[in-house]
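Human: Respectfully, please carefully check these C-alpha cells:
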Amino acid sequence: MVVYNSKGINMVIRDMQIEDVHSLSVLYYHFWGEDSNVEKMQKKFIELQKNDAYIFLCAIEQGQLVGTVMGIVCEELYGECQPFLVLENMVVDNACRRNGVGKLLYTELENRAREKGCTQVILVTETNRADACGFYQSLGFHPTANKGFKKKIS
C-alpha cells in the first residue's frame, strides 16, 4: 500500500481486495455503460488473484474506489527471455480525472512490473480516445513507435 498526500488529497494505492469488486463494477459501468455480473467478477477475481502474473491495483480516496488498473505479466521466449507487462482496464472515475489518480496507479504498476523483472509495458487503447492517448503519451508511451491491433472474436 502506498499513501500519497498531494494538494490536500489523501490517496491510497493498494492491491485490490474482493470487497472492492462491487465498487469496481460500478466504476466499469460509468466508463463503458455496460452492466457487469458482480458474482462472476468476484469468482474470476478470486481465481486470478491466486496467479502471480496478475496485478490488480486500486486508488482509494476518502474510502471510495476512484480508480483501478490491471497488469498481466507475460513471459517471453526469445532474446534474454525477459517478461513484459500488459496494461489493461485502467479506469478513473470521471470526477477524479486530471487529479493525478491515473499517474499514481500507473507509477505503482510500473514499480510492480520492475519487481517482477519486466522490461517493457504494452497497452492498447482506442485511437478516438484523445484524452487517454494524451495521458499515455505523458507517461512516456510513444504512439508512433509501434502499431497495435485488436480484433474481437466470439
Observations:
- The domain at 2-138 is CATH 3.40.630.30 (Aminopeptidase).
- The mean pLDDT is 89.
- Strands lie at 2-6, 9-15, 54-61, 64-74, 84-92, 121-123.
- Helices lie at 21-32, 38-49, 101-115, 130-138.
